[in-house]
Give the backbone structure.
Amino acid sequence: MDARLDFFADPTTGKALKQFMAMGKAFRESSLPTTTQELVSLRVSQINGCAVCIDMHTKEAAAAGETSVRLNLVAAWREATVFTDAERAALELAEEGTRVADAAGGVSNAVWANAAKHFDQEQLSSLTLLISAMNMANRLNIITQQPAGNYVAGQFH
């Protein structure tokens, strides 16, 4: 399968996407734990059905030391006992922030308050931007049918 577009072949979109991808560096440098970032990125991508992002974030998480048990249970995190309370709060925020069309009213106050119990202002800001950025990345990749399976951990760092 070939992608419909090569974003970097066009100077305007290439420039815009380089700026977009620079957010990833800012997230990596934030105090939001890398594990949480990868779990959230993976869950958002699962919900949206973005194969290339699922491939990327599964491999990035594994390279960061994440276990296959936890990676395999992300889709069923509510029933799994392997996630911390903070990770569960982040995953719940990611789900409500991604399923805004399904959840009339968007992110509930209860979900936000739970996340705020586990993350400080900087971490909440990073988490909110990460969820939003992942939703954008998923849509870009799905619309243009970017192929999955060949990502190598660290490829975009």
Observations:
- The radius of gyration is 15 Å.
- The CA atoms of residues 8 and 15 lie 8 Å apart.
- The chain has seven helices and no strands.
- The chain has one domain: 10-143.
